User: Fold this.
Amino acid sequence: MVELRFTSPVYLQATRFDDVLVESKQAQTRQLVAHGDATQQIESSSNVVRIPSAESIFSNLVFTSTLITPNGDGINDNTVIQFTLARVSEPQAVEIGIYDVQGQLVRRLDTATLGAGQYLRPSTPTAATPGLWDGRDNAAQLVPPGLYLVQVRVQLEREEVTLMRTVAVVY
Assistant:
C-alpha cells in the first residue's frame, strides 16, 4: 500500500484528483489508480476533496501597491488587484470598479469572465492584465490625487458577492 500526502489549493467544490502510477525506469508504463479502500483498516475511499461551505467566494484581496504615483517614472505607476475566486463551477463575470469618495464610478476594469483560481500579478503586467489600474479614468485621463474605492464584484445565480478596499493616488 502507498500513502501519498500533498498540499494543493482547491478552488472548486468536489474537486476530483485522478492519479497515475508511472514506473521510473519505463515512463511508458502507466497505471491509473482506482479510488476505493485498499484495506479495511483505512477508510479512504474517495479521491474527491470538499471545500468547507463557509469558504468565501472571494479571498486574499490585495493590491500590489495601495499607493500609486502614476507619473511615468516606473515606480508605483500602477497597481494590480489580486484575489482568489473559489466555489464557482463555471467562469463568471467579475467586475472591478474604481470609485471616488463621492461614490462616482471613475474606471471600470476589464476582467472578462474568470473561472475559479488565483489572479495574481504576472511578472510583467501589461494594460491587458486583469485587475491592473494605472490611475486613469474611463476617458484615459489621470485621476486627481486622493483616496479611491476599489470594488470587486461577482453576480452568481443565488447571491452577489462584493469586496471593497481603498487605494491612494498621489503625485
Q: What stands out?
A: The radius of gyration is 22 Å.
